[in-house]
Amino acid sequence: MTQDGPSIAERAVAVHPPVGVICIVVVLTCVLWLAVPIATHAQREIGARIEHTYTFGNSATFSLVPADGVQISAPTLYLRTQGGQTESYTTTVTSPNITIERDLETVPFPPFSEISYWWTYTSAEGKLIETERHSFSYADNRYAWQTATHAGIGLHWVDGQRSQMLRALGVAEDALARIRDALQAPGPTEVDIYVYPSEEDLASAMKLTGIPWAGAVTYPETAVVLVAIPASQEGLLVMDRDIPHELTHYVLFNLLGAQGYATLPTWLDEGLATHFEGSPDPGYALALERARVDGTLIPLGELCAPFPEDSRRAYLAYAQSQSLVSYLRQQYGYSKIRDLLWAYADGMACSTGVQHALSIDLFQLERTWRRWLDQQSASPSPTSPQGRTQQLLRDTAPWLLVLGALVLPLLISLPLKQR
């Protein structure tokens, strides 16, 4: 026996809400529908247009130009640099066109970064109006840049044959793949590389952006790399060295994040960058050997902080960092180097990170590295007479053994025949 279900009237009541509820919903819908266009209209009111101009490294001017007959007050400019904080500048209305100028010599923008800006002002009716947001790339507009892109990498250059620049693009693509594979560092591949025609041109650009000198520089937060590659045969060696070096900083930043990257000891950051160079600087080995013999190697603890300002000491710091990372790679492998990176990304101090990842302290690491360095130096150079002799013996040893196995029985049998 089954129970009777609800009547048709009861089902109708269950399905349809009361009339009063319907009326309330309709009224609220109408109010919201009317309110949305009003709010949108207030934000997008066309009462003024905005403009900007800049001279690279000198000044930037931002203008608010009211339409005819439009009166405004309390104009405020908002600026946001790529990866940075929003800045605001409030000014007074002294003429129909409102302008605010930023001194780029004292407060520079990061070169080739994306700059966005907008204004707010109060209308004659007392409404707070926000203009549309505009953005532009703060490029070095002293030059006419050419561009080639592939696999998310943009290469921009001023001088040089396109074939040479396409080779630089290939160097960048190969370097990113090699570095990411070694460090197991997945991440974005979008990066822009700007190639200046000489170190002097790059140094000029750096000076205009507040950096005294740099042979090459990376802005990882904006995915921008600046290098100087001359349009000559020398440029091939420079691109093999500098492009992988700078891209290593970019990969490390994306792997560890801004905060984690900021805690890396300088010796590890720069050591990895020099380690991945395609054409290492041959002067590093000479500087390292000279310092080892003279007893002037820089203590490892001092290389945790920024490198010395003195150019010769800084050069030695790069040489030592490269050697130390090569030692870690040979003795521990990339897995331990990755452990070391994450230890520092977690905020560990220079010595504590080594202890955590390698189970030795910083002083033990330095001692074992110096011992390894002594052993490397004790091996004769391949170009020295002793080194060439040893290499010849190594190369011919298998053939000498074979020859000995054939000749020795003959030598033994000769005395027997004479008897």
Task: Walk me through what this model shows.
50% of the residues lie in helices and 19% in strands. α6 (266-275) packs across α8, α7 (283-294) crosses α8 and α9 (334-345) packs across α10. α3 links the parallel β10 (153-157) and β11. The longest helix has 34 residues, at 385-418. It has twelve helices and 13 strands. The protein has three domains: 48-137, Immunoglobulin-like (Sandwich); 144-255, Collagenase ColT, N-terminal domain (Glutaredoxin), CATH 3.40.30.160; 263-385, no CATH class. The strands form three sheets. Strands 3, 4, 6, 7 and 8 form a five-stranded antiparallel sheet that branches. The protein has helices spanning 8-15, 19-43, 162-183, 199-208, 234-262, 266-275, 283-294, 311-331, 334-345, 350-358, 362-378, 385-418, and strands at residues 48-55, 59-66, 72-81, 86-90, 98-103, 114-123, 128-130, 134-137, 146-150, 153-157, 191-196, 217-219, 224-228. It is elongated, with a radius of gyration of 34 Å. By secondary structure, it is of the alpha+beta class.
